Amino acid sequence: MRKSSLRRTPRRTGAALAAVTALALAATACSGTTKDDVDNESAANAPGGKADPDTALKKDLTVGFLPKQVNNPYFTTADKGGEKALRELGSRFKEVGPSSGTDTSGQVSYVNTLTQQQVDAMAVSAQDPGALCTALKQAMSNDIKVVTYDSDTRPECRNAFVSQASSEDLGRTQVRLLAEQIGYRGEIAILSAAQTATNQNAWIGFMKDELKDPKYQDVELVKVAYGDDDAQKSFQQTQGLLQEHPKLKGIISPTTVGIKAAAQYLSGSKYRGRVRLTGLGTPNDMRKYVKNGTVEAFELWDPAKLGELAARTAVALVSGQITGKKGETFTAGPMGEYTIGSGGVISLGRPTVFDAKNIDRFTF
Questions:
Q1: C-alpha to C-alpha distance for 354 and 225, rounded to whole angstroms
Q2: Rounded to the nearest 10 degrees, what angle do helices 133-141 and 14-26 cross at?
Q3: In terms of DSSP bridges, do strands 121-124 and 92-95 run parallel, antiparallel, or are they unpaired?
């Protein structure tokens, strides 16, 4: 992990920051889910004046990336996209984060660390929708811009959220993919990540809503299991689902760690080809399982592009091109122009479906 050399004038006293840090570490997790239609008035808590889309982008900035879990292949790819963009923009990249995919308190301490180091902005994938709020608000009060990516916090605790795609699109399309594969009939289960993960819960909410459509009247969701984005636990949860529900026809795993672990289990079992699996995965992880018939089709966005957009959004915020309010537009370099939607949400775009016909065209 590369460390940046910072030469900036301190913006607060050590005693004051220590007191706030202690308060943030004492904060407890809160329940809640962020969806795409968050009301704008509760969203862009953007200090400062009016956005100027024509102002020049600042250089020599430091942007800290805080993923849910370092050394997770998905976040490694996403954060490398952010690092590449920052290098092109003449600024510095810094990554910190917990090694566990469920370490919410660890994320709080890393937010406080980045605040103490006086970074210009931070991009955070939140483990929990509320647990980071106190720490993130303190960062914002110290003129640090906060972007969430992949998984959101509460809207008032950041300036903007860079979403992989519409939560509704992601939730509904995963159900549609699986339903087509099982002939719209049979028991299905969901293998999620952490029970508090904002993005997972938003997608699962739309999955359940999609299943209310009469065309799914013969499809029954029997269980939502949680693998905590841990490969071994996800593998075991897959095994447990099949033991508990011997008539299971399909599994949706909206997490790259979970779908890979589930595919690994199914591939070496009597269930290969009998129990369908779809969800969100990377082509590199899933290629062999598509080719050996374990998985027919799955979907994802390009995580490198997600990280890149998070970085470019952070720099645009620091530069004053945007403040995070609905309707503001900015140009994200070669990615093109983006418009901020309700709740300060910036959507990367529609997910891509991968199958045997196209998977070899992708290398992430």
A1: 24
A2: 160
A3: unpaired
Class of residue 39 by CB neighbours under 10 A (exposed 0-12, middle 13-18, buried 19+): exposed
Query: Length of the chain, please?
Result: 364
How does pLDDT run across 38-63, given as a tens digit for each residue? 433 333 444 447 899 999 999 999 99
Cα angle vertex 140, ends 139, 141, to 5°? 90
Identify the bridge partners of residue 65 per DSSP, sorted by sequence position: 95, 123
Dist CA 347 CA 220 (whole Å): 31
Least confident residue range of 20-24, 205-209, 241-245, 299-303: 20-24
pLDDT, tens digit (0-9, with 9 covering 90-100), for 222-232:
999 999 999 99
pLDDT band at 10 (very low <50, low <70, confident <90, very high): very low
Amino acid making up residue 323: T
pLDDT tens for each residue of 235-264: 999 999 999 999 999 999 999 999 999 999
CB neighbour burial string for 171-209, b if at least 16 within 10 angstroms, e if fewer: bbbbbbbbbebbeeebbbbbbbbbebbbbbbbbbebbee
- Domains of the chain in start order, with CATH, are 41-164+303-348 (3.40.50.2300), 167-300 (3.40.50.2300)
CA–CA gap between residue 88 and residue 209 (Å, rounded): 42
Angle of CA points 346, 363, 71, to nearest 5°: 70
pLDDT at 212: 98
Reported as a single tens digit per residue, the pLDDT across 198-234 is 889 999 999 999 999 999 999 999 999 999 999 999 9
Which two tokens mark 3? Answer: 């460390």
- How far out from the chain centre does Cα 54 lie? 29
CB 190 within 8 A of CB 254: yes
User: Kind and range of the H or E element at 250?
Assistant: strand 248-253
Per-residue pLDDT at 178: 98
Of 160, 169, 164, the closest CA to residue 140 belongs to: 160
